[in-house]
Design brief:
6-stranded mixed sheet, 14 helices, alpha/beta, elongated, 2 domains, 10 strands, 371 residues, 4-stranded antiparallel sheet
Length: 371
């Protein structure tokens, strides 16, 4: 397999096998440059169809309320203006704008803002501001949490650079392997086909022909800004100036929650305590239409099974109580980093759904055995 960054077939190490939503997905790290990509890599058309179909939002619904999402968008727009030194009236274009909140805030702030997203359902929500057809010659093209979705990030950055005037800039924000959130089975996602560190994102920008590349980490988000107008460089030309290769497995291990911080109960663990098989014969007998009382041997079996049912139901109720308490604890565990807070909201939602499912199991074990 050829590395997308260094363009060599260097050996790779598997760094993750199961992504969010229990999705099988293999991510590998290149031994030469440390770049992380999925294997096998989906095609660009497969990914475009994934977003056009609306499947992305079905798989990854928003974890925060509209008010929280709006507050984050307003903060994101302010950050862009303050840190990138934009001037009133500059033409800015957002790629992968989602619901268009940041682009709309840029438009409201007096910038000539345009935006695009491959999901037509998202574009339909934009309304006024940020929805104008995009033309080239932008002062800034920015993409927030988009580049990690692109199967050829170098080519993608070159395409975005083509939207800019000479001296314009490209700004990206991506999740970072240096501060993964929620552990690898949450941090890695089906649509995140590449993952970055400061070193590999800098190299990707330089390989795309961007110059004066600046990077930084805010919370769990890695950002980079580069100026359009340079020549694309090979990895050989930039390798020496990038510093040592990242130890990706160590970075992932450092960001993996320790057992005491993980949810105390999982759905699989809870249902492991429930065995419906002993009740199969009883349920069959009860479903038949009978007018006479059950024979003595069936009645004895019913009483034995009823006792076992009660024991299992008590155990399930205790588990549900523990999951409800865990949901409350995680939901109250606010964090100023929007992405970590989003992860914790997702944890709370998953625990709530699991607890409701266990509640349904409890209800389904209520059986009248009679006299």
């Amino acid at each position: 397999m050829t590395c997308l960054l260094c363009a060599t077939a260097a050996p790779t190490a598997i760094v993750n096998r199961i992504a969010r939503n229990d999705t099988p997905q293999v991510s590998v790290a290149c031994s030469r440059c440390g770049f992380v990509q999925v294997a096998p890599m989906p095609t660009a058309e497969e990914l475009r169809e994934y977003y056009r179909s609306g499947a992305y939002r079905a798989d990854f619904p928003p974890l925060r309320s509209d008010a929280e999402e709006q507050a984050i968008a307003e903060a994101g727009a302010r950050w862009l203006v303050e840190h990138l030194g934009l001037k009133h009236g500059d033409r800015v274009h957002e790629v992968g704008a989602g619901f268009g909140r940041v682009a709309r805030e840029m438009w409201r702030a007096g910038f000539d803002a345009t935006a695009w997203d491959d999901d037509p359902a998202m574009r339909a929500t934009w309304g006024t501001g940020g929805a104008q057809p995009f033309t080239e010659n932008a002062h800034l093209v920015y993409a927030m949490q988009v580049l990690e979705h692109c199967p050829d990030p170098i080519a993608t950055l070159r395409e975005w650079s083509g939207y800019c005037r000479d001296g314009g800039r490209v700004h990206v924000q991506v999740p970072t392997l240096e501060r993964i959130y929620g552990g690898p089975s949450y941090f890695f996602q089906k649509p995140h086909v590449v993952n970055f560190t400061r070193r590999t994102l800098t190299a990707t920008m330089l390989r795309a022909g961007l110059t004066d590349v600046r990077t930084g980490i805010m919370g769990s988000v890695l950002w980079a800004t580069g100026t359009v107008g340079g020549e694309p460089l090979s990895y050989d030309e930039i390798e020496a100036q990038l510093g040592p290769v990242d130890d990706v497995p160590a970075l992932i291990a450092a960001g993996t929650p320790q057992p005491e911080h993980a949810p105390s109960v999982t759905m699989a663990e809870a249902l492991a305590h429930y065995d419906p098989q002993p009740f199969a014969a009883l349920f069959t007998w009860l479903q038949e239409e009978r007018s006479e009382p059950p024979p003595a041997d069936v009645r004895a079996q019913m009483l034995r099974l009823a006792a076992e049912l009660a024991r299992q139901r008590i155990q399930l109720c205790r588990i549900k109580e523990a999951m409800d308490a865990e949901t409350q604890r995680v939901g109250d565990d606010w964090h100023p980093d929007a992405w970590i807070w989003g992860y914790r909201c997702g944890q709370a939602r998953r625990l709530q759904v699991d607890a409701e499912a266990i509640g349904a199991v409890i209800n389904n074990t209520l059986v009248r055995v009679g006299e």
